[in-house]
Amino acid sequence: MKIKKKTAASAEISTASMPDIVFLLLFFFMVTATIKVNEEQLDVHIPNAHSLTTVDKKFLIKELFVGFPKDSKLGTSARISVDNKLIALEQIGQWVQEQKSDLGEVYKDQLIVMLKADEQVDMGLIGDIQMELRKNNARKIL
Question: Which of the residues 12, 74, 104, 117 has the least number of beta carbons within 10 Å of its own beta carbon?
């Protein structure tokens, strides 16, 4: 009597639909992704830093840019920009109050203003900006 060997069962995963799944995932991420358009109006060349300070709570940092306009229609003198919008020196106080109100009651006094200024900007304007920040109780400036 001869005993027949059973054939080993093979468990294979069908990969026939793999290209379809990959294409659908690729298409999904392409459609749902947003492209951040960076429309900077100022040309800012930041000088090299001499010291570094790390901040644990990044949400406390608000950026303020000072530089020269890229478009000649805006003039040739240094301008102040916040969130890609040009503001006047007198509007800094209002901007500080808006930023503080967005932070909440606990962190209002801990606002940190990161001043990013071009190397060629007159220090008089930088001093005026710092004075406006001090008047509005924004005393932590990087």
Answer: 12
**What whole-number distance in Å separates Cα of residue 97 and Cα of residue 76?**
29
> How far is it, in rounded angstroms, from Cα 127 to Cα 94?
18
Nearest Cα neighbor of 112 from 96, 125, 128 is 96
First to last CA, the chain: 92
Q: Which residues of 21-39 are buried (b: 16+ CB within 10 A; e: fewer)?
A: eeeeeeeeeeeeeeeeeee
User: Nearest-5° angle of CA 39, CA 68, CA 120?
Assistant: 135
Q: Angle 93-95-98 (CA atoms, 0-180°, nearest 5)?
A: 110
Q: Give pLDDT tens digits for 47-100.
A: 777 777 777 788 888 889 898 888 778 788 888 888 888 889 899 989 989 888
Give the whole-angstrom CA distance, residue 40 versus residue 69: 9
**Which residues, in sequence order, are bridge partners of residue 79?**
67
How many CA atoms, within 13 angstroms, populate the side-chain half-sphere of residue 71? 6
Counted residue by residue, the chain has a size of 142
